[in-house]
Each structure stands twice: as structure tokens, then as C-alpha cells.
Design goal:
single chain; alpha/beta; Spore Coat Polysaccharide Biosynthesis Protein SpsA, Chain A; ten-stranded mixed beta sheet; about 30% helix; globular
């Protein structure tokens, strides 16, 4: 399996820690977020990894040069322009084989569920994309039907529903929060490239993968995945969550 780790974020909510380093190199209980995610995906059987960079990107390059994780790791350089998750995958597409699924993992998501079981689910359902979700309290949710297939998205604060035609049926759908880990088949990579070409020119290739999933879910199969066993999950994007994760992952 291949993987892409999104490590290009600015980490503004982790200042002052990110005033002199990228968010992915902030330490959690003695190890950087990036090292923890790399070791996790390697343990799951990943043999080729793409890491995208932007903020203090040269420090991530130096970090990767100084460590041997036993797998092939290449850098997708976004130092000239941050592209967000969807645009980041499009830019990195040259590094993917096009023959096997790609695991997409945010560098600031620390979790310990079994990625291999998620891959098995992805393959067995024949989904184009499988996304980690949970019934977690948030303001933005993916909407799934009884077959765990994505139907849309909603913001519970603003009341926005996408697509708008789904508003009358929202009560029949499950609201689940995205967990920052997903597995996509080659069909998604191809579709992302086409999608990027249809966006307004002023976006300059920068777009999130979240609205993409919503826009294509009626044509492609996007499935929810919830691990069968309890697991730890932390979005280490704020100082408070960093402190909490550091306590939980301390060895």
C-alpha cells in the first residue's frame, strides 16, 4: 500500500511552538507527530510514502534525511503555494503507482486503530474511497445512509446542507465526523485531477478534499469506516489537545 501524509499545515493554533518549526515536527510525548504517523503506516504495511511540505518545509526534508524508516519516502514540495488536501493529492499524483489504494493521513491525527482492517474493509466493499468517521461532537458532519454510503454534508451551526436538495431527508441520515484518515482507490486520484481542472482559475489548484467527496458521492462510492474495537484518536491541532495527547501517548 502507498500513503500520503499531509504535513504542509501552518499550525497557527499551535503557536508559539510552530514559530520555528512545522506543525508535523512538534513533539508528542518525546516523538514528533510525523515520526509517529510514519511508524504507524509502516507497521500497517505501507512501503511507499509521500510527505507534502510547506511551512518550514526544509526542516521536514532534513528530518527525513536524518531518519531511516525502512521504506521509500519522497517529498511533494508546496513551499511556493499551499494547496490544501485535494490540491496536495493532485500535485503528488506523479508519485503514486496508480495500481493500488493510497492511504491519506493527516500528520496531526494521532490514533491507534488497525489500519489493515480499514484496508480490508475498503477492498471488500469495492469502495472508491473509505473514510474514518466517528459520532464525535463537532459542527460539521458527513451524512451517510443505512448502507454507510456518503450522501452529503452539513454544518449544524449555519444549517448549511450539501447538496441543498438533501435538506428534507437529513433526518434519515447519520451524522458522522471525519477522522482525518482515508483510503482512496486510483479512480479517486483520476477524478481529483479532473475535478481540479473544473474549479475557478482564481483557486489556482488549491482545494480541500472534503467538498470533493460530497460533490462526487452520487457518482462514486464513498464509504464510512468505524473501527470495530475501541481506539485512541487525537486531533493535535491546538495546544490543549497537544497536552492531552502527550499525556495519553506517554510511554
Amino acid at each position: 500500500m502507498q500513503a500520503m501524509i499531509f504535513a504542509a499545515g501552518l499550525g497557527t493554533r499551535l503557536r508559539p511552538l510552530t514559530d520555528d518549526r512545522p506543525k508535523a515536527l512538534v513533539e508528542v510525548a518525546g516523538a514528533t507527530m510525523l515520526e509517529r504517523v510514519i511508524r504507524r503506516v509502516v507497521d500497517a504495511g505501507v512501503t511507499d510514502i509521500v510527505v507534502n511540505i510547506h511551512h518550514f518545509g526544509e526542516k521536514i526534508i532534513d528530518f527525513l534525511d536524518a531518519h531511516d524508516f525502512g521504506v521509500r519516502i519522497v517529498v511533494s514540495d508546496e513551499r511556493d503555494r499551499l494547496l490544501d488536501t485535494g490540491g496536495g493529492v493532485v500535485k503528488a499524483r506523479q508519485f503514486f503507482s496508480g495500481k493500488e489504494p493510497v492511504l491519506l493521513h493527516n500528520a496531526d491525527i494521532l490514533t491507534d486503530f488497525d489500519i489493515r482492517e480499514m484496508l480490508d474493509a475498503h477492498v471488500s466493499t469495492g469502495a472508491d474511497a473509505t473514510i474514518l468517521v466517528a459520532p464525535r461532537a463537532t459542527s460539521r458532519y458527513f451524512l451517510f445512509d443505512a448502507d454507510n454510503r456518503l450522501q452529503g454534508w452539513t454544518n449544524t451551526v449555519t444549517g448549511e446542507v450539501r447538496p441543498p436538495s438533501l435538506a428534507d431527508d437529513i433526518a434519515d441520515l447519520r451524522q458522522l465526523a471525519f477522522g482525518g484518515v482515508h483510503i482512496v482507490s486510483p479512480s479517486i486520484i483520476d477524478r481529483l485531477v479532473s475535478y481540479s481542472r473544473s474549479l475557478p482559475a482564481e483557486m489556482n489548484g488549491k482545494f480541500s478534499i472534503t467538498p470533493f467527496y460530497v460533490d462526487v458521492c452520487r457518482q462514486l462510492c464513498v464509504k464510512a469506516y468505524q473501527p470495530r474495537r475501541p481506539y485512541r484518536w487525537h486531533d493535535v491541532g491546538k495546544l490543549e489537545s497537544l497536552a492531552e495527547a502527550s499525556r495519553e501517548f506517554k510511554e
